[in-house]
Amino acid sequence: MLNELLKRPVIPVIVIDDANDAVPLAEALLAGGMDVIEVTCRTASAAEALARIKKALPEMLLGAGTVVTPDQAKMCIDTGISFGLAPGLNPDTVKYFQDRNTLFIPGVMTPSEIEQGLSFGLKMLKFFPAGAAGGVNMLKNLGGPYASQGVQFCPTGGLSLDNMNDYLSLPIVSAIGGSWLATKQQIADKQWGVITQQVKDALAKATEVVG
């Protein structure tokens, strides 16, 4: 699964308030050429949203984000997600996913957290909150000591169409996470065409640096 995820430079970070919007939203992403989604576990409808996408669109690489409690971790595994993410690094959550052979990408912000991730054999880490944590300059500095360890980062938080390639141009960045691709308001207003165009724009932008 990690190899598959590494082929996808842009991951949409989605907050779904109404599970009825889950499948139309995922279809809008697919229409734009994006077959990966991260549905955050921030809302009461997240579990049902994940389940609906899994059933209706098995071709999607289905990720669950903001996995911060044992109950959320169990729900994600039971749903059959492709990968999980979290804003921080909880060793218990890492082990739970590893024991069930499911890719997990914890969040890190400091060298100590990166080294803790390495101690678990993790090679892809979420850099969060990227903008507030020093952005591109911070990642450039982290690349010095850790690039040789094979670490790849997925920065999330504060990214946009305007700055995404500043991150993707870094050798240690394999993908970026973006909530601008489908905002809560756009989803609530069912602006599927707008979302599809935003996805197309992001993917076109990404080709400027990743081919």
TrEMBL record:
InterPro entries: Aldlse_KDPG_KHG, Aldolase_TIM, KDPG/KHG_AS_2. One of its GO terms (molecular function) is lyase activity. It holds the Pfam family Aldolase. The keyword Lyase applies. CDD domains: KDPG_aldolase. Pathway: Carbohydrate acid metabolism. Keywords: Carbohydrate metabolism, Lyase. It comes from the Bacteria. Belongs to the KHG/KDPG aldolase family. Homotrimer. This is KHG/KDPG aldolase. It comes from Pontiella sulfatireligans. The lineage of its organism: Bacteria, Pseudomonadati, Kiritimatiellota, Kiritimatiellia, Kiritimatiellales.
